[in-house]
Write a structure and sequence with these properties.
3-stranded antiparallel beta sheet, alpha/beta, TIM Barrel, binds magnesium ion, Enolase-like, domain 1, globular, 9-stranded mixed beta sheet, binds [(2S)-5-oxo-2,5-dihydrofuran-2-yl]acetic acid
Amino acid sequence: MKIVRVETIPFSIPYKKPLKFASGEVHTADHVLVLVHTDEGLTGVAEAPPRPYTYGETQESIIAVIDKIFAPQILGLSALEREAVLEKLDRTVANPTAKSALDMALWDILGKAANTPVTQLLGGYSDRMRVSHMVGFAPTDQMVAEAERVRDTYGITTFKVKVGRHPYTDDVEACRALRKALGDDVELYIDGNRGWTASESAMALRAMEGVGLTFAEELCPADDVLGRRWLVSRCPVPFVADESATRPGEVTRELLGGSATAISIKTARTGFTTSQRVLHQCEGLGVEVLMGSQIDGQIGTLCSAAFGAAHQTSTRRAGELSNFLDMSDDLLAEPLTIADGTLRTRESAGLGIEIDPKKLARYRQDT
Ligand code: MUC
Ligand code: MG
């Protein structure tokens, strides 16, 4: 099962409704489809979503680093030699979604070769995940209307509310309005994408008392080291590290340094191999994990669900698996569906990603 060719295909699909948050906004899914071909005719498929405001990757940089650096390093290796592949990729720092797409495409090959869904190879715990929906910045009445629509249409009852605005009272108002409209049966948590200082975060958390939040994520930058520790030591709920804990070493630093008390795992940035390391690290340390979203399309969502459903610990909380609902279209031949607040994994071998050739032809940017 030698790797003989790696293809990188840029595609662009507009969002029906852009997602806005403290560190940026997404209007178009400018992702990269990554195909890894083997000499036995098996092809692994995954997608890399550039998030320039988070990791500095762009569609162009992902294609360049894979085509010019990573592909030449892994050509000739077997798809079974995942450790050797990672060793090569990890010589280069950063570029997390480029590396992860390659890792997940290799797992797709393994699943296809074993005629088994990847989720079963990873752990096989469950065939589904509860879904959490991200509510981006908008006037409060629109945020409430969106959450009500998503609850009524898809049965979703967990919402991550984007916060980190100035003044923070806009976010307090939104969270209070969401709780009032949705009642006590829904779960609400907040994500600041580093928009506040430690003191602003503390003020906002105090003003949100009684809202009944489950978690608070990245309210202030991890590089404000002492301020963040101060905040986390006073935070009334687990404080989730997302973009500050993107690999095992960072997870250790954030948790042991008192700068986080829970971890967001995103397969888009740690693939399956490193996500599994992070998950086991968190289990060993006794901290909760959330399956986060790098604002994934349907391919990325399928990957995240395959990983989340595979492990007991990651099924405990709802996973962020609904961003694709806001896209105008996608590449999968059989679109994903969410019903009763749940997304099911695919039963086909590998990741079950079947690309619709007509859609790919329509949205690819390289022809
Ligand atoms: C999230 O959880 O922060 C927004 C920026 C990013 O890197 O991921 C998204 C969602
Ligand atoms: Mg986040």
